[in-house]
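Sequence design from tokenized structure. All designs in this work follow the same two-part layout: the structure record, then the generated sequence. An example of the structure record is given first.
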């Protein structure tokens, strides 16, 4: 079905044409008519499916050309990067209209965000924590919200945002349209959906957790201490110009970056401990080619929006099989071909098995010529994590949500809540700017 049969306003069709989209992606074809119709939507869709346009286009259409003081659309997103990216899409597609949007996230000053609400805004895209701060301080008014979008809802739950979301919802009218997007459907997501959505149209664009056929997936079996040499070799030999590498921990990401740099491969790390400035700089460098390798943790990587990212490498397999699907979904987007290589150590065989079970096929094994795959004496010393006793080589993956893995956003939340509690009754403006810093 072509775009012009979906019922979108001419200015939006122009924006779509200007973006170079020739036809709607499957989720757009299904979601746009439902959203235009005012229905609730429950959509299983991961990044790369075109889900952002699937809700921004019809919502822009519904807002029309009129401006109002109070926001009418609220989009909640798990990370600053994703929020910024959604806001960017709103601006791209809404270029010719009068609709004003703003993005709200932590780690930056409060004043410009407060000023946005004062001035009046139609669409607010926000991470839950900072928005809640603004609501509790009386700077934001959501009493006119007509549509609420929960984007990457599974991630928001993973990051411990459920309580913040519930608190934000108290400020949003109960009678509204609600759209929920999630890559996976855990019991918790189903429960959330059951509470928030009213007779939703259910959209499932790809069979759950099916990996796109256009992504060429490979596994290299390699002992852990040799992974870095194999990675450098693969990048150099194949001339990979833009590689996204997933590391399991922030510490691991930092260390790998340094090592790649010393191998002559310009690399940067992207994870939750990086300041907003450092993240933006790393992403810009990666996009413009100054940085060849971006090493990211799962959560930080969710917000990277780069058209046709060609190569994704799993330096370590994720502990949760679904994350594998998210990760490789970063390549092969919007019809492009992509390549995903996983470096799998002997201690990761079980994880690999689980992933293959989930995606329903065996991933092709690949050998890499010219590098020793087996660890030597020197590797051990070189690769051993600093200040950690060697537990006999058993590199047991940390449990999900445990200290080692990914982004410790819930920890940040707790810190923020504590600081909010500490300020109770007082004037918070003094600590405001830094209270939610990262
Ligand atoms: P998303 O799943 O929203 O993160 O979008 C993934 C990518 O697909 C973005 O870079 C969009 O610019 C692109 N995209 C969205 N809709 C289309 C479309 N109909 N045709 C081609 N590319 C699209």
């Amino acid at each position: 079905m072509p775009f012009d049969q979906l019922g979108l306003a001419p200015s939006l069709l122009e924006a779509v044409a200007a973006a170079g989209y020739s036809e709607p992606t499957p989720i757009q074809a299904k979601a746009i008519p439902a959203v235009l119709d005012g229905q609730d939507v429950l959509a299983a869709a991961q990044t790369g499916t075109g889900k952002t346009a699937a809700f921004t286009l019809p919502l822009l259409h519904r807002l029309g050309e009129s401006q109002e003081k109070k926001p009418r659309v609220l989009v909640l997103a798990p990370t600053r990067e994703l929020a910024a990216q959604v806001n960017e899409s709103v601006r791209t597609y809404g270029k010719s209209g009068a609709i004003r949007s703003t993005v709200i996230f932590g780690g930056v000053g409060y004043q410009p965000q407060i000023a946005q609400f004062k001035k009046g805004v139609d669409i607010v895209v926000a991470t839950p924590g900072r928005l809640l701060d603004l609501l509790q301080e009386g700077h934001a008014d959501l009493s006119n919200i007509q549509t609420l979008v929960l984007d990457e809802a599974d991630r928001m739950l993973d990051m411990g945002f459920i309580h913040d979301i519930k608190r934000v919802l108290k400020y949003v009218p109960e009678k509204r349209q609600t759209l929920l997007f999630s890559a996976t459907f855990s019991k918790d997501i189903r429960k959330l959906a059951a509470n928030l959505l009213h007779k939703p149209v259910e959209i499932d664009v790809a069979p759950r957790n099916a990996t796109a056929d256009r992504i060429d997936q490979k596994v290299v079996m390699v002992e852990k201490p040799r992974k870095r040499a194999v990675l450098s070799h693969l990048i150099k030999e194949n001339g990979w110009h833009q590689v996204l590498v997933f590391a399991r921990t922030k510490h691991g990401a930092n260390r790998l970056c340094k090592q790649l740099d010393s191998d002559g491969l310009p690399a940067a790390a992207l994870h939750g401990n990086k300041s907003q400035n450092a993240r933006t700089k790393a992403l810009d460098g990666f996009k413009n080619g100054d940085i060849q390798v971006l090493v990211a943790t799962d959560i930080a990587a969710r917000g990277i929006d780069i058209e046709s990212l060609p190569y994704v490498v799993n330096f370590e397999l994720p502990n949760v099989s679904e994350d594998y699907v998210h990760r490789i979904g970063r390549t092969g987007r919007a019809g492009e071909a992509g390549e995903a290589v996983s470096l799998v150590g002997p201690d990761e065989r079980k994880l690999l098995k689980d992933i293959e079970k989930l995606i329903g096929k065996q991933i092709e094994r690949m050998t890499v010529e010219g590098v020793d795959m087996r660890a030597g004496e020197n590797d051990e010393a070189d690769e051993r994590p600093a200040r950690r006793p060697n537990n006999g080589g058993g590199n047991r993956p940390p449990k999900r949500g445990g200290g080692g893995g990914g982004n410790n956003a819930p920890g940040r939340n707790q810190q923020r809540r504590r600081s909010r509690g500490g300020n109770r009754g007082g004037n918070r403006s003094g600590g405001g700017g830094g209270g939610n810093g990262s």
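Residues 380-438 have pLDDT under 50 and may be disordered. We note this feature because it recurs in several other targets discussed in the main text.
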